[in-house]
């Protein structure tokens, strides 16, 4: 508080003679100073922390892809590639999940004709891979009245064939008057081989049950199929 603002209110002699009043003014200013300092220090500290927080925030990099379009190769984001293919009325197809050299997925923009041709090509490759993974075929006919011991012998034989990468075709000869027996034989085979083989194409033809047993998929097959 400045002394000149008090002069119009109080006579000068009273101010000079009243030492207690002047001391109160000094004490008021002295007491307010630490509070002002603390306030400034707190504000300054908060601003510094905010600046540090902003500096520490890192921008998450957007994954890039390799985009093929005809003879052109572009490095871009998947979102941009999708927008581009939509503008050009083309199909965006993933060719490779992860390129070993660039460590990026590979996409290609195709016309409808190119897409169809690529689809046919991939299906043919899958079919060829299945053929290569199977050494040959074995056929086994089992009667529905087979004894449990004899059935177990057949199951052990099937395990060996499947282990050697053979496809096993099985026919269970049933009785039209009692189809439950043939079904129970099938269930026993299924439960015994559910880990060693894959059962596919089960079908009922008259009183007979037909199905195939295939070797489990290899890691290479699972990656390509």
UniProtKB/TrEMBL annotation:
Gene3D superfamilies: Translation initiation factor 3 (IF-3), C-terminal domain, Translation initiation factor 3 (IF-3), N-terminal domain
Record keyword Protein biosynthesis present: yes
One GO cellular component, as annotated: mitochondrion
Span of the signal peptide: none
Protein name: Translation initiation factor IF-3
Entry's Gene Ontology molecular function annotations: ribosome binding; translation initiation factor activity
Recorded family membership: Belongs to the IF-3 family.
PANTHER family: TRANSLATION INITIATION FACTOR IF-3, TRANSLATION INITIATION FACTOR IF-3, MITOCHONDRIAL
Keyword field contains Protein biosynthesis: yes
Protein's GO biological process: mitochondrial translational initiation; ribosome disassembly
């Amino acid at each position: 508080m400045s002394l000149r603002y008090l002069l119009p209110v109080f006579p000068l002699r009273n101010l000079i003679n009243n030492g207690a009043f002047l001391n109160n003014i000094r004490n008021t200013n002295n007491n307010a100073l630490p509070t002002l300092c603390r306030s400034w220090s707190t504000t300054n500290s908060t601003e510094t922390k905010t600046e540090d927080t902003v500096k520490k925030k890192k921008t998450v990099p957007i994954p890039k892809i390799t985009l093929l379009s005809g003879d052109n190769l572009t490095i871009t984001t998947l979102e941009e590639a999708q927008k581009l293919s939509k503008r050009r009325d083309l199909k965006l197809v993933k060719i490779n999940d992860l390129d070993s050299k660039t460590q990026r997925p590979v996409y290609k923009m195709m016309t409808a004709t190119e897409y169809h041709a690529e689809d046919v090509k991939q299906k043919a490759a899958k079919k060829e891979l299945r053929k290569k993974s199977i050494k040959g075929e074995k056929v086994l006919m089992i009667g529905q009245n087979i004894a449990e011991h004899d059935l177990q012998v057949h199951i052990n034989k099937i395990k060996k064939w499947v282990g050697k990468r053979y496809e096993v075709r099985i026919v269970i000869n049933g009785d039209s008057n009692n189809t439950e027996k043939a079904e129970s034989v099938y269930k026993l085979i299924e439960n015994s081989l559910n880990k060693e083989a894959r059962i596919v194409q089960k079908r009922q033809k008259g009183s007979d049950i037909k199905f195939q047993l295939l070797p489990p998929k290899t890691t290479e097959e699972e990656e390509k199929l």
